[in-house]
Amino acid sequence: MKKIPFLEGIKEFKNLHFRENEILFKELVDKGQNPKALFIGCSDSRIIPTLITNSKPGDLFVIRNIGNMVPPFKPDNDFHGTAAAIEYAVSILNVEDIIVCGHSNCGMCRALYEEDKIQGIELIHVKNWLRLGKDVKETVLKIYKNNPDINIYELTEKINILYQLKNLLTYPKIKEKVESGELRLHGWYYKIETGEIEFYNSDTNSFELVL
Fold first, then answer.
1. Domains located in the chain, CATH noted
2. pTM to 2 decimals?
3. Dist CA 55 CA 35 (whole Å)
4. Burial level of 175, CB count in 10 A (0-12/13-18/19+)?
5. Fewer C-beta within 10 Å: the chain N or C terminus?
6. Cα(83)–Cα(90) distance, rounded to whole angstroms?
7. CB-based contacts of 86, cutoff 8 Å, min separation 6
8. 180 by DSSP, 3-state: which?
């Protein structure tokens, strides 16, 4: 039999954490899920949505991919995993908030400037995925040209969040619900090294540390 990864953790969950929350899990089965928000985050192993939000099972409907990206709405017959999950959260689960959470030290944002290193058939989907960051990169380079002392990677990580918020509005149902006040969009920037989260303020067009 193959060695099972995280076996001790699985045992601890079943014998400790599950038992502590057994009533909650039963309710989640009986009543179904009713998440408070859709959380779109990066697949980076250092980002744990439930940990940084201190949320409980059932609170968050989570989408994770490389670079917390939101592909623009594209009504075709291709397979769109991120788009399908977004549609499900908004139209079926009726979440009231969508959080796009980027983070410091993002490998995807750095890769936008190192695309020559991403070659070969084994990385074909990664290379194609990076195309979603083309406009982000172009915008950052224009800003960086006049502000060479700025941290280009942090700027990219934050501009990337704004573009994903913009892409969310290409989904007809999201646009409709945002305009009617039924749905709110949020941009977060999580600093791995400090545990702080900056929130995007559309009034000042800046990320601000609220806490």
1. 1-31 (no CATH), 33-205 (3.40.1050.10)
2. 0.95
3. 10
4. middle
5. N
6. 11
7. 38, 40, 63, 70, 98, 168, 171, 174
8. helix
